[in-house]
Amino acid sequence: MLDEKLPKYYLVKKAIVENIENEVYDSKDPIPSERELMETYQVSRITVRKAIDELVTEGYLYKIQGKGTYVKTDEGSSNLFSITSCTDDVLRLGMKPSKEVVVSKMVNPNVKRAKALEITTDDKIYMIGRILYADTEPLNYTLTFLPEKIFPGLSKYDLGKESLYRIMTEVYGVKITKARRTIEAIGAQDEIAEYLDVEEGTPIILFRCITHGIVNGREIPIENFKCYYRTDKFKFYIDQVR
Predict the structure, then answer these.
(1) I want to staple 109 with a disulfide (CB 3.0 to 4.6 A). Which of 8, 32, 113, 220 is the partner?
(2) Strand partners for 206
(3) What is the pLDDT of residues 175-233, one digit of tens each?
(4) What is the DSSP string of 153-196?
């Protein structure tokens, strides 16, 4: 029985957290359904939903539409400082990666992007938008901008199947050296929410990045991208040493 002196939703939350910490719930399986939780704790559906919604917001749980609510673990995490392809991240997690190209065209950069890539607004850049899936679930959406003069003929490659970083290094001979990322939390909106299969306003992580590489003996910007990550499917960590 729940302690009637405290809000019922809080007590349901506390009970669920205890089950998470004691590994009563297997992260591979959904937690009990709303109806099962209602019966277990003798509370209303509104109470159960409030408890679950707060645990999702607090990072204990995440929802998969049509499948249920799951425990969020540290298994789906990546080093914030490493330069790896998103496909490699998914493979490292033991999941099957796949990609869908939803944007692919040649454009002129705006002033800000031209400065980031150290080119002019008269130069051409490839604009490539791809959704990355992990075991058929969308993990992130990346919108990438690449100078055409560094990667001529890039459009002939199927970036829904091939690794962009592999093409950069093996086909164009570019050695990737460093990347500067900024990170912020935003709410998913419009087509981003659609691509990630989340409701509008859902918290997601946005990375903005400028990648540098060696081209003809010089280190220059070779890539500018924005990457939107589902926070319920992936975490990032930073290793620190003293």
Answers:
(1) 113
(2) 184, 228
(3) 999 888 888 888 888 899 999 998 888 888 888 899 999 999 999 999 999 999 887 76
(4) TGGGS-TTTS-HHHIIIIIS--EEEEEEEEEEEEE--HHHHHHH
Taking residues 88-97, what's their average pLDDT? Answer: 70
pLDDT computed for residue 184 by the predictor: 85
CA 168-170-171 angle, to 5 degrees, is: 70
* Distance of alpha carbon 58 from alpha carbon 53, whole angstroms: 9
**Res 158: pLDDT:** 93
Across residues 140-161, what is the average pLDDT? 94
202 three-class SS: coil
Report the Cα 66 to chain-centroid distance in Å: 20
Count H helices and E strands in the chain, helices first.
Answer: 7, 10
- What are the residues facing 71 on neighbouring strands? 61
Report residue 146 as tokens: 């690449």
pLDDT, mean over the chain:
85
Beta bridge partner(s), residue 68: 64
Among 34, 36, 72, 26, smallest CA distance to 51 is for: 34
Taking the C-alpha atoms of residue 201 and residue 57, their distance in angstroms, rounded to an integer, is 12
Q: What is the mean pLDDT of residues 12-35?
A: 86
Give me 117's structure tokens.
Answer: 């890539």
Task: Please choose, from the candidates 27, 48, 52, the residue with its C-alpha nearest in 3D space to the C-alpha of residue 39.
Answer: 48
Cβ-proximal residues to 172 (8 Å cutoff; 6+ apart), any chain: 150, 151
Report if pTM > 0.85: no
Which residue, chain included where needed, has tokens 């910007």?
Answer: 221
DSSP state of 76: S
Q: Is the C-alpha dihedral spanning 111, 112, 113, 114 positive or negative?
A: positive
